[in-house]
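@channel sequence for tomorrow's demo:
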Amino acid sequence: MASIISAGIGSGIDVNGLVTQLVQSQGAPQLTQLSTKEASLQAQLSAVGTVKGALSGLQSSLSGLKNLSSFQSLTATSSNTSLFSASAVPGATAGTHSIEVKNIAAAQRLVSKAVSDTTASVGTGVLTFQLGTYNSTANTFTANPDQSSSGVTIDSSNNSLEGIRNAVNGAKIGVSASIVNDGTGNRLVFSGNATGAASSLRITVTGDGDTNDTDNAGLSQLAFDPTGSSGSGKNLTQTVEAKDANLMVDGLAVTSAANTITTAIPGITLNLLSASKDNPATLTVSRGISGIANNVQTFVDKYNSFASSVKNLASYDATNKKGGILLGDSTLLSIDNQIKSTLNATVSSAGGYDSLVSLGITTKKDGTLSLDSAQLANALSNDPDAVGKVFSAAGTPSDALVTYQRSTTATQAGQYAVKITQAATRGVYVGAAPTSPTLTVDSDNDTFSLKVNGTQSGSIALTQKTYASNADLASEMQNRINADSALKASGVSVLVAYDTDHFSITSSRYGAASKVEVTAVDTNTTTGIGLSVAAGTDGKDVAGTINGQTASGYGQLLTSGDGNSTGLQLQVRGSTTGSRGNVTFTRGVADKLDTLLSGFLSNSGLLNSRQDQLNTRIQDISTQRTRVNEQLTKLEARYRTQFNNMDTLVGSLKNTGTYLTKQFSSSTG
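structure tokens (generated this afternoon):
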């Protein structure tokens, strides 16, 4: 009997198709149900991602509202921006100022005579550049002690106009060189990199190839001694004079070597652009109300975006009889309720305003927020600090010399007593009364060195001259110390004063790290000025308690480390010890909301937990689908075995029938 080699050949039945359909009919309902569940879970997962995005946007909008400093920022505006621009930093005070720019600071420009060929030899030797101050009345040049003279060697390799230009620029000595063609020829132009009268140039030549270092020939044609005569050492032409900026601020004369001035008005930087004598402009320093209003509007917009997302995802559409993807989701309901509760909270001790509603922010019927811009603007104009406290974490001290600095998430709202046992002090060096006091500084008493707050200065060189008073000399000492490059690089500065019969040098820093030490003096500095090599008295950190708990002190900063006031940091100024009043600490809406959102969006927060749950359920469905497919594979194998056995049997019976038929036919014949 022939064997069956393919399913269905023996019986003529489509076994493959029949088995496939039977298996599919068995597995389709289960697989369809799993796919439907998976699609629903994936949609929920995407919806949770949408909520996270909306909450992240809402939290970002709080950056300009959660800190009180945002409401204390000031803007500086010039009534004539062609004369000057201005900017404000913390420490500025609101108000108006009259600014008259008489002239702006300038860097000197010196021009050579014209030559036709920029590659032709000019001469060889050494060009020495020195910065200082030229007095045209006395015809004197005083070298700037803070700037050493610098020499540039000119030889056969660089003795052309182009070569000299490149050599001077490459030396990086604070002087720039360029070549300008004015139509009559090429001229070499020297310019100081710094503005100000103390940046005038004196250029001397040594080793000129024609043996005359001052004539108007060879390299000496580039010499410029402002006290000399034309053609004999004063061989360049001055086209721009080095000069200081001069301006009147509220009727007071101010002089500056630079056009950027930071010391005239505390907290204000003036950038002088042009001069207009006898034509003052107005500088207005005011609260940045428009910027704050924009921040509030952004917050309202971002909240409304979140509210719209919640409505779309969690509401029921009665018309279409269809619920949102997250309808009834407990996580979303919890988040929405907590946010609404925070927005509706009142803030104690916030002055005339205690809630968002009092600022013109109300809730509409659809759950979104509405901002009354006029009401907010009025509140900001009346009391911007109180408005800030509605939004921000804030501390309000009763002592005018105590200032709130910051807090942490651990700081709880409340009123805390402040008591000081040690006021912060600064390191100070007190000189001795000089045995031979003098106001004349010469080569025997003009230098000394300091170590301030651990930073060693270079050699401090005083200007050699006879000073008008001890106060004048103290001012010179202070200016020279604060100009030291090492101290400036470390952000170190001092105050120098003369008291009765001695000089004192005080660090600008407060605390135990505040130190002043004289490390070197000139020959007669001790006898003439009273400075000698010695350490001063170190400063002390503030010490005291907040809320009855010992707080840590660093400089003038006192920080609570225990109890409800944990993390509260105050700046304590003045020398008064004992009770320093109370500090009332409040948390505004934006501050509370920021903390709340940080929790929601954290790795262990509600939203990530919800996403983890959904991902776990999606993974379970994948596992179930694999299990169902494995069962269907086994079922298919069993069906194929059964149908193949049937097919073999039917094929055998058909062969037997064919055989018998043939036999019967033969017998009948």
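heads up for whoever presents: The CA atoms of residues 59 and 544 lie 36 Å apart.
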